[in-house]
Structure formats: structure tokens, C-alpha cells
Design a protein that fits this description.
One of its GO terms (biological process) is DNA-templated transcription initiation. GO terms for molecular function: DNA binding; sigma factor activity. Belongs to the sigma-70 factor family. ECF subfamily. InterPro entries: RNA_pol_sigma-70-like, RNA_pol_sigma-70_dom, RNA_pol_sigma70_r2, RNA_pol_sigma70_r4_t2, RNA_pol_sigma_r2, RNA_pol_sigma_r3/r4-like, WH-like_DNA-bd_sf. This is RNA polymerase sigma factor. The protein is mainly α. The chain folds into two domains: 75 residues, Rna Polymerase Sigma Factor, Chain: A, CATH 1.10.1740; 81 residues, Winged helix-like DNA-binding domain superfamily/Winged helix DNA-binding domain (Arc Repressor Mutant, subunit A, Orthogonal Bundle). 76% of the residues lie in helices and 0% in strands. It contains nine helices and no strands. α2 packs across α3, α3 packs across α4 and α8 crosses α9. The protein starts with a helix and ends with a helix.
Length: 165
Amino acid sequence: MTTMQFNEKLLSLQDKLKYFALSLTANEEDANDLLQETTLKALTYRKQFVSNTNFKAWVFTIMKNTFINNYRRTQKTRSTFESVEDAYRVAFKGNYSSETPEMVQAVNEMNQSIEKLDDEFRIPFTMHTSGYKYKEIAEELDLPIGTVKSRIFFTRKKLQNMLEE
């Protein structure tokens, strides 16, 4: 397949790819980004396409895999807190001259929510946010490391639910 034929086939699929991207992302802007990224990858890896195979399936697979990879990357970077600043404030509770009343209120709500937790969840969580490693917490509290990790995980989930309300 020549470069011209490849480009024509790719351009002819743009509408169908856009529709597929919308079905994956449910967001117009994200769908456009996914379409652009897919088109770029198809053009970049054009030489890997084997002639006399299903071109449409090849391009749709690129889009599906790109979406999955982006989704996984997003899930890994997702945080319990709205921003890094919120997590930093909870962890280090320092003085901030640029704090707004809303920020102070949000930190106070988080701290109050943490204080409402049972000791078995609150203590490992506060130790973790204070900088202790899982292993150190496990040794200090005489617990298995898996228990410490699960308690910190469940504490984050509880806090998310408490703060959403």
C-alpha cells in the first residue's frame, strides 16, 4: 500500500473513529484528543501495517489500546485529595500566608473527618501522612504490613465518602 492510499484510507475512517472515540470517552474534547492521538500513531507506525489485512480493524485497535492506556495512566495518578496542595497541607500542616478562608475550612473539615475515625484506621493513616513508611508503621503498631496497607487504603476511601457528603 502506498503512502497516498494509506492516508486516503485513514482519512475516510475519521468520522467512524470520531464516533467510536465518543463512545469510549463520552466527552467531545477527550474524543477529539483520542482521535488526534490515534491518527498520529497510525501515521507514525504506518510501516508496521501489513498489506492485505484489515486496515479498519488495525486503526480501531490502535484507538482502543490508546484509550485503555490513557485510562490506566489516569487511574494511577488519581489522588484522594483534589490537588497536591490539599494532600501537602494534610500531611505537613504548615503555616501558609496565602491561605484563603475556603482553604482553611477545607483543611479543618479534613482534619475533623480524620479525628472521627476509629483508632485502628486513624493512627496508621496519620502516621502515613506524617511520613512513616508502611514497614515502620507495621513495626510500630505490631501489625502485618498488608493490614497497614489495607487500613490506609480503606481510610482514604472513608475520607472520600465523608468529604463528598
